[in-house]
Amino acid sequence: MMPTDSDRIRHPVIIQGGMGVAVSNWRLARAVSTRGHLGVVSGTALATVLVRRLQDGDPHNDIRRALAHCPRQEVVSSILARYFLAGGRKPDQPYRLNPLYSLNTSDDLLALTIVGSFVEVWLAKEGHSGVVGINLLEKIQLPTLASLYGAMLAGVDYVLMGAGIPRSIPGALDLLAAGQEADLRIFVEGEKAGHEHRITLDPTRFTGTPAPILRRPIFLAIVSSSALATTLARKSNGKVDGLIVEGITAGGHNAPPRGTQQFNERGEPVYGPRDNPDLNAIKALGLPFWLAGSYAQPDQLNAALAAGATGVQIGTAFAFCEESGLLPEIKQAVLRRSAAGIIELRTDPRASPTGMPFKVVDLAGTVSDQEVYEQRTRTCDLGYLRQSYEKEDGSVGFRCPAEPETSFIHKGGDPADAACRKCLCNGLMAAIGLGQTTSTGEKEPAIVTAGDDVRDLNRFLTNGNLSYHAADVLNFMLSKLSPSPAAC
Q1: Exposure of 94 by Cβ count < 10 A (0-12 exposed, 13-18 middle, 19+ buried)?
Q2: Is the CB of residue 75 less than 8 Å from the CB of residue 115?
Q3: How many helices (H) and strands (E) in the chain?
Q4: Computed from CA positions of residues 326, 332, 337, 340, in that sequence, does the dihedral angle turn out positive or negative?
Q5: Phi/psi of residue 398, each to 5°?
Q6: Does residue 187 sit within a domain?
Q7: Interacting residues of 103 by C-beta distance below 8 A, sequence separation 6+
Q8: What CA–CA distances, in Å, run from 3 to 151, 173, 213, 217?
Q9: In this structure, what CATH number is given to the domain that contains residue 194?
Q10: What would the pLDDT profile of 90-139 be if each residue is shown by its tens digit?
């Protein structure tokens, strides 16, 4: 097992959550890290984020500055030649798409993924000595190894992963750090007995031989129960260095309720006492842990520390600060409604193609508006949340409950799974200003996610302002700690 930094780095008290597609962008992560806490970039869809930023002209030269430090400059030159548009796209010009992932993803797409991840982490770490993490979803499996490797080439300090059971990630980090080939077993629906499908990544295919020895980042698994925490701590194929324990009020994907599913009058899943994690059992595992889900209050931080936690993870409070990647007009609309006490948030069991409940802000002009949802043409042109399934001949196909329903059903999908399903890939891209414009001029509407804390963001607003900074969140959180603990 490759050594980690666990023994020489004092873990941060505050972790900034890895939210959405580039909501937790490099600017936000850098703002938190330079203050001595753990800034985290979202690792979701970074290949697409990279090529769309380049097609928008990279107006401040940030992307090209990072690319200049990336290994394999011939790969960088090829990416620039294919995607960079000086001065940016015309207003109604569609983005050029990068290919979709498969079990046999091309070297070009793997390289693009490595480079996209490298760029985001490199920019977050630029010019300071603070620690930076990357957040990935276990359910998005096909880009995972390439995303991890790109982040490691940029010196990422922490890897955070949830939305599934990431038992194979610690071992993959060990192998990639050693410059060795890593593999992951891929979940394939309908997989026949004796069949097993895997993806691999050999670092030398990107770096050349020999691949460099890299520092193995600290791995934090995101869990919602003591049972899952125990499974990961004891049965992973490498060291789990710590746990982030998310409660049901956290934003984004939530674990479904335990037991028989029930729904309230708004169609939301009903959670009960069984869904509250057993902190005593988690503490008994002996791993550092952070609490998440409505912990952005000084008293909550103190309570978490008193309960034995290393600290807390905060998402929503950072998601709507100036440095986050959300469009300014979305931040303004949410903050205005939060300050007026009229914000609506719904745990939507149909929002995510993954089948996991997903928290969505009710906001005019977004897909939370039923009329907007119905007017949108269903498509699956990004494909990050597609499900793999085994065909009769043993080959693997891909389908998404949010793609056109006839296509999904033709591929063997259950019509009930497709009903009212929303496209997170395109909706989250639109929320950060990278939404697609179709050849017919249709613009992708946004989807906005948040945790329950979105109802109380006015505590960061002063003097009638409708904006605040990441530093304001940190100052607020540490205001009642005496003395304030050093983060790292």
Answers
A1: middle
A2: yes
A3: 18, 14
A4: positive
A5: -135, 140
A6: yes
A7: 142, 186, 197, 199, 388, 396
A8: 17, 11, 11, 9
A9: 3.20.20
A10: 988 999 999 999 999 999 999 999 999 999 999 999 999 999 999 999 98
As given in the structure block, the two tokens for residue 117 are 């991840």
Q: Is 194 exposed, middle or buried (0-12, 13-18, 19+ CB in 10 A)?
A: exposed
Residue 487 lies in a domain: no
User: Per the domain annotation, does 452 fall within a domain?
Assistant: no
Q: What pTM value is reported for the model?
A: 0.91
Distance CA 7, CA 11 (A): 10
Residues 1 and 24: beta-carbon distance below 8 Å: no
| Cα 473 to Cα 452: distance, rounded to the nearest angstrom | 16
Domain total for the chain? 1
Domain span at residue 119 reads 14-327+459-478
Residues 402-438, buried b or exposed e (16+ Cβ, 10 A)?
A: bbebeebeeeebeeebbeebbbbbbbbbbbbbbbbbe
Residue 420: the pLDDT is: 85
Residues 418 and 405: beta-carbon distance below 8 Å:
yes
- Positions in the chain whose pLDDT score sits under 50: 1-8, 271, 482, 484-488
Cβ(33)–Cβ(126) under 8 Å? no
- Please give the pLDDT value at position 487: 44
Q: What three-state secondary structure class fits 14?
A: strand
CA separation for the pair 125, 128 (Å, rounded): 6
Q: Where are the beta strands (DSSP E) in 90-241?
A: 132-137, 158-162, 182-185, 198-201, 218-223
Please report which residue ranges of 186-225 form alpha helices under DSSP H: 204-207
Beta bridge partners of 185: 198
Give the separation between CA 1 and CA 236, rounded to whole angstroms. 13
The total of other beta-carbon atoms located within 10 Å of residue 456's CB is 17
Instruction: Enumerate the β-bridge partners of residue 41.
Output: 134
In a domain, 467, yes or no: yes
Q: What is the pLDDT of residue 328?
A: 96
Q: What span, in angstroms and rounded, lies between the C-alpha atoms of 333 and 328? A: 9
Torsional sign, CA 7, 311, 237, 156 = negative
